[in-house]
C-alpha cells in the first residue's frame, strides 16, 4: 500500500486563527509521487483584507466577495482530505486555521496526522540559515511559480517534500509513521 499525503496551504487575512480568516485554500493529494487529486478555492473571509496582505498574496476584497465562506467550503475540503496525512510548510499555522474553523463551524476536530516541511528542514538542512519556504526552495532549486498564493505554495511544498522523502529514504526512513517520528524527534546539536 502506498502512503497518501495531502499537501496543504492556506492564505489568510492575518496570523491569528482567532481573529483572522481564511481567504484561500489549496491542496494536492499524492500517493507515492503521483498526484491523485487537487482542491482549490478562494474563500470569502467576511472581513476586510488588509492592504499589506493584498500586496503579499495578490488576493483583494473584490476577488473574494462572491467566493464561498469557510463554513460552506470546509465540508467539501475535509471530504477531499479524508484520512490522509497533512503536509504543509509551517503546518501548525495551516492546520491551526483549518482545525479552529472546523471546530467553530462544524463542531468537530480535524484528527489527521500532519508533517511540517519547515520542521523537516530544521532536521535535514541544519546548515541552511533560514527555513522559510522560499529559502528551502532556493536550496533545492525548486521554482515557486506563484509564491504566497495557496496553489503556488502547495506545488513548491510538494516538490520540497519529494526531496525530503528521497533524503529520508537514504536513511531508511520511509513510512508515514517513521517520517512523523523523525520530524518530531529532538534536534541533535
3D structure, described in words:
It is a single chain. The protein has a single domain, classed as 2-Layer Sandwich (Nucleotidyltransferase, domain 5). Helices cover 45% and strands 19% of the residues. It contains 8 helices and 5 strands. Strands 3-2-1-4-5 form a 5-stranded mixed β-sheet, sandwiched between helices. Helix 5 packs parallel to helix 7 (150-170) and helix 6 crosses helix 7. The chain starts with a strand and ends in a 5-residue tail after the last helix.
Low-confidence stretches: none
Number of helices: 8
- By DSSP, the count of extended strands is 5
Tell me the fraction of residues in β-strands, as a range. Answer: 15-25%
Shape: globular
Q: What's the name of the CATH homologous superfamily?
A: Ribonuclease H-like superfamily/Ribonuclease H
In the sheet with the most strands, the strands line up as: 3-2-1-4-5
N to C succession of SSEs: EEEHHHEHEHHHH
